Amino acid sequence: MSVRPIILENIVRIAQQQKKPLAPLTDELPLLESGLDSLCIAILVASLDDSLGVDPFDRDGDVAFPVTIGDLIGLYEHATA
Amino acid sequence: MPRPERRSLWDLTETSGLPPRRFVADATGRLALSALARGRTLAVPPEALRGQTVLLSSDRQLPAVAALLQLDGIARRILLCPPELAPAHLPAVIAEAGVDAIVSDGTGPAAHAAGATRTIGFETNVVSDPGMPGQGEIDREGPTEWLLFTSGTTGRPKLVVHTLGSLTGPLDDGLAVASDAVWSTFYDVRRYGGLQILLRALLGGGSMVLSQAGESVADFLARAQASGVTHVSGTPSHWRRALMSPAARDFTPAYVRLSGEVADQAILNSLAAAFPRSSIAHAFASTEAGVAFDVRDGLAGFPASLIGQAGGKAELRVVDGSLRIRSARTASRYVGDAQRLMDADGFVDTGDMVELRGDRYHFVGRREGIINIGGQKVHPEEVEAVLNQHPAVQMARVRGRKSPITGAIVVADVVLRPGSGSLDTIRDDILEGCRRALPPHKVPAMLTEAAGLEVAGSGKLVRRA
């Protein structure tokens, strides 16, 4: 199963809860312009850890921090592959 | 020659009168104070322990209470060993305090402690024979040091030095209590909060119903009601659990006291609704700082006017956001530890953080419990206070969850009241209440339902995950 819809659903839900207006979600959209603040992203990472069982940031060594929505999805696709 | 002033626990108990109705009881035994006056429960005459450092070890509290009555003023030091002390800590405790003898009924953490110490038996049955001196005839000139264990949940507990004088200081607070009061507490009386209640019972001419490890809240409340308990204390966590029990409906205490944790408005309101004829007070106390004050107006927090008042029984200061206390009720020092208990001015830093809102200070949490969310500080207790306001929430625990993005995020476990339905149907409503009352970083990012939340032997919510 693809992680993409799960990530997008979570982004929409968290933005609603946090009352953050979201920009249209495209792969090219920079995360920092999406409307999500760092607290939203922190909640997203924890939610995905619970639903997917992975936290791609919880690794020894360097993790390239995702810049765009596409980067973020790629990071999880790679981690769950 | 005039007799020296009689100030020991036994002498003060005897001074308050020994009618046959006075007792100390637990779930399985009952000690009549008038019977103890003519006999003893120790296997040796108290005289044999004069000047010695004695550790009391038993699962039950009743034998320890009897031993305290017999040994205060005679022993050099008495260690009140709580039942959950890890046996691994015992050798260090025994060495540090210089324990000469373990007084035990064969149970408790030190029952099988190895070492050069001797073990003296005791029980709850009073032994009496005609040649034995009555308790009142034994010289108890003390002062005995009472060593209490701090209630920290990690690492080895520290030993805090009190005397009967520092422990009984708070009793002089103007609370009017009938002399036939029956006191009780959810606490173990070997903890500071429980010991306060025991001393109020013994010195005030009353009786005492002890809690018992392993007994359900319902059974304890039923036993308290059957024993005629009028005055009862516990932590807010104890009380939240008690209110979940149907047995609370039949319980009719005259006085309900909270201490040991932050008493939020929700628990004060719930208790007022459950016990409409009771007076309800919440006290601020810690093992090190003693009782600083109690609050009787039914409102959370305490009046700002208490800060900086001179000439009171306890002086209060707020420095760097934490409450500091100076009074004759504080412990004098830690045993065997270089760490100072007081600052240069004699104030004890409680580590409890307060915040001024209007004309009242509110407790926002422990300094060491702070959750740091991207540099913004959150006290779990302030979020719990908001969660507890929701009608469906019986009890809440808030903690930090590690986050690679912000260092931590706030998550919460809640116990729902019976009949509240599933959390999924009310999660949004509960969180909406949090969003109205709290800035976004303090609102729990995740809310999980728990069947129950663990309460430690100290009566406080267990906070480690």
Automatic annotation (TrEMBL), chain A:
This protein's name: Acyl carrier protein
